[in-house]
Amino acid sequence: MEFCMPFPFQPTALAAGLSALCIFSSQMSVAADSIAQPKMDTIVVTATRSAEKLENIPARISIIEPAAVEQSPISQMSDLLRNDASINMVQNGGLGQVASIFVRGTESDHTLVLRDGVRLNSATSGMAPLQFLDTTDIQQIEVLKGPASVLYGSDAIGGVVQIISKTPTKNTAFASTEVGEHKTYKSIIGADATKNGYYAQIRGQRLESDATKVFDLDELSTASYDQKGWSAKAGSKQENHAYALDYSSNEGRSFYVSCSNEDKDYNCLNYSNVAQDFNNEMINLRGEVRLLPALELHARLSQFKDELDQVTTTDFTHNKTQEAEIYSKFELTPKQTLLSGITHRKISGDIVSYGTAYQDDNRSTGYYLQHQYHQDGLNTQLGIRLEDDAKYGSHTIGQAAIRLQALPLTSVYANIGTAFKSPTLDERYNSWSGNPNLKPEESTSYEIGVDQKLNYGLSSGLSLYHTKVDHLIVNGPNYTLENLNTAVYQGVETYLQWQNGGWSSKLSYHYVKAQDDEKKQDLQRRPRQNLSLAAGWSNDLYGMNATLNAKSDAVDYQARNPGYATLDMSAFWNINPNLKVFTNLQNIGDVEYKTSSYGSGLYYMNGGRLASIGITVKY
């Protein structure tokens, strides 16, 4: 495994001061796991759309808990996700730069990203705008690994990342500010109100940063980032019914590297930083009612808009996703539950790219049915979905899964599932590589796993999986997109965790071989080996955590991306119930690692360290 770690370490004055704080704190504690393996009573909802104990789910799920999210308001979604060894986050620089997520080696548009059930993947790129999503007001993040198209339709070949927002539980108001290197700061203000099961919430936030260099040319300046937004929520949670209306708006400006002049062989002659304005807006109306003691009815109406406008040209990308869903949960017996539902979706895009305009929309309706059996030591899921797509016809997909408590300390699981993904508007129409004749991608996945409790607070787990994707969309001759016959993803995911009171540590490792099955060539931007090591200690008053991430090298466009290792550290102190101070050091070794190849021997870069300190006041 090849790593790049510059030496000697030359911290700035801020970083030096924060390092001293961390060293002092370490005399009282060691690092805590920022994405710790959740406790066995952790409740998750993404796998079944019902509140279930994590230990009963016949799949592998990672949880990013509230403590990790609240530790740094500046953190982006990519920062929160990168500590999972089964995820390869590729971000072309720091704040505001394009971020792609590869779960278990699958494509960057094979992971469905949701916020409280609302689909955030765009019609044009097929990816969620992770770099532009605000991380304010997150309760926890659930990462479901493996196909999930039975419940969620297209795009969930590799897995689902669900962002679950907070529901107010008491009357409170707060203000939080974090400041750091590169003239970076974020401020948040918010208030919650509750009474007799009714609640309301409001948040406002602002983030600015000079950010860092994103390209390995010395003549290019850093790519600054400016973002602001607000959100509001109101609802009610009663014994037999509940409803909520959520709204959020987030906008700003980011700079990125662009080629402004090419020769006849497509070699870039001039690079520059150019500006783009972004805006995303979400509206989500949800409701549920218990019609009978054994019957619940749930409904949702939602809309997500994702817009990007170039400042110096007339190019723009405007996406909109609208969904209506209704589903029921019926308790057949005390041990059996039947979930059935209908989802109607309309996705649309309006694009001008390099002066070429195209727009389109697509409608699809999904009908799904899932049966669950649950008793002490045995949990099963069996599901089927019919997706009627206006452009690509009907697809029938299914999933079967089982988890068995084989021994008092040993749990085993297995699952099999199929999934699909329709081509995006960019893949069909963009001016440089689009192909309107592309077929949908289809997959079949198998997985087996075991979780084992050991003595002295130790626990471990192991998962083996095999995924085959037919008609994978890749770049063909002359840079035109085409359907590859078959791609195969084979991998192993394992962890060893120790928990004893406030002390914790976790070692996780992921190996994946993602290849073109015909040519036996590795697919781009998939390091075969990923390792994460975290350890720490914390209680209600103070704590400290640190995480080491390491990745092997990976093939990329005209090059190989070198492997690298980074170390993050953070600490907090609850001085009293109303005042908290905290510090974060992202990439403490100031590793300017290469994230992706541009070609011609040039790379996008991660900009190095971001040291920060913050304070939260609440009443």
TrEMBL record:
<keyword id="KW-0798">TonB box</keyword>
<dbReference type="InterPro" id="IPR010916">
    <property type="entry name" value="TonB_box_CS"/>
</dbReference>
<keyword id="KW-1134">Transmembrane beta strand</keyword>
<dbReference type="GO" id="GO:0009279">
    <property type="term" value="C:cell outer membrane"/>
</dbReference>
<dbReference type="InterPro" id="IPR000531">
    <property type="entry name" value="Beta-barrel_TonB"/>
</dbReference>
<dbReference type="InterPro" id="IPR012910">
    <property type="entry name" value="Plug_dom"/>
</dbReference>
<feature type="short sequence motif" description="TonB box">
    <location>
        <begin position="42"/>
        <end position="48"/>
    </location>
</feature>
<keyword id="KW-0812">Transmembrane</keyword>
<keyword id="KW-0675">Receptor</keyword>
<keyword id="KW-0406">Ion transport</keyword>
<feature type="domain" description="TonB-dependent receptor plug">
    <location>
        <begin position="54"/>
        <end position="160"/>
    </location>
</feature>
<keyword id="KW-0472">Membrane</keyword>
<dbReference type="Pfam" id="PF07715">
    <property type="entry name" value="Plug"/>
</dbReference>
<dbReference type="InterPro" id="IPR039426">
    <property type="entry name" value="TonB-dep_rcpt-like"/>
</dbReference>
<dbReference type="Pfam" id="PF00593">
    <property type="entry name" value="TonB_dep_Rec_b-barrel"/>
</dbReference>
<dbReference type="GO" id="GO:0006811">
    <property type="term" value="P:monoatomic ion transport"/>
</dbReference>
<dbReference type="InterPro" id="IPR037066">
    <property type="entry name" value="Plug_dom_sf"/>
</dbReference>
<keyword id="KW-0732">Signal</keyword>
<keyword id="KW-0813">Transport</keyword>
<comment type="similarity">
    <text>Belongs to the TonB-dependent receptor family.</text>
</comment>
<feature type="domain" description="TonB-dependent receptor-like beta-barrel">
    <location>
        <begin position="216"/>
        <end position="588"/>
    </location>
</feature>
<protein>
    <submittedName>
        <fullName>TonB-dependent receptor</fullName>
    </submittedName>
</protein>
<dbReference type="InterPro" id="IPR036942">
    <property type="entry name" value="Beta-barrel_TonB_sf"/>
</dbReference>
<feature type="signal peptide">
    <location>
        <begin position="1"/>
        <end position="31"/>
    </location>
</feature>
<dbReference type="GO" id="GO:0015889">
    <property type="term" value="P:cobalamin transport"/>
</dbReference>
<keyword id="KW-0998">Cell outer membrane</keyword>
